[in-house]
Amino acid sequence: MAIKIIYSLVFPPAIFVILVFALSIYFYLKPATRKLSYFLFFVSIMFYLSTCSFVGDKMVSDVENQYPFPSSITGDSIVMLGQGARGEVITVDGKGELTSETAVNVIATLKLYNSLKLPIILSGGAPEGAKGAGNESQLSKRDLLAMQVPEDKIYMDDKSRTTQENARNAKVILNQLGLKHPILVTSSTHMSRSVELFKKEGIEVLALPTQYEAPKKEQHDIFDFIPSVNGVSLVRIGLKEIVGKFQ
Known about the structure:
By secondary structure, the chain is α/β, with parallel strands linked by helices. The chain contains 9 helices and 7 strands. It has helices spanning 2-10, 14-28, 34-49, 53-64, 100-116, 136-146, 163-177, 188-200, 229-244, and strands at residues 77-81, 85-91, 94-98, 120-123, 154-157, 182-187, 206-210. α8 packs parallel to α9 (229-244). It is elongated and about 75 Å long.
């Protein structure tokens, strides 16, 4: 345990938090730089909070808990949101590969289709500014076809670049098909923002979240309070979804 704690403290990001905090103390001891010490102390606290798993867990849990997994699943269609794809990767199916987040959504969508035989709407293109990004819908369709989903059951919005565009473009397809009660498939952290944006378009969805991020812990250990890469990731996810609601 002691060795793991030492390792956690001497590797980034913890070591940077410690160094900034140490600098704030050093400058505080010098009257000429005391004002700078206050700034560095503030930076060290913000840096710590943004790299702490305990903070990230709380932020992500609050987002995830807004839409728990439904007790029963009913609807007239499945809308799956893409969450990333790589365009330049070579795979057994050719060029392009889904990220793990989108792949999990595809698996959930496949299971829903096998159970309910509903039409599938894939929403997501290639996000702007994402170097080497692949088209999420096109690659998702390729994978669903490889898993024996009939092509006439798959509809694509392969132009969307944001969640707001996902909702708008999916609405067009739903209206064209005369569908009104979609089952929305996306990650648990992305679900709250997605549902709100679909509501703004006048679409009430059944939320079917995937890939829960935050561990459901009743007790936290010391590593949850030590800065870590996992902490950075969780805080980033939480902030992205909270800020994204202001679209």
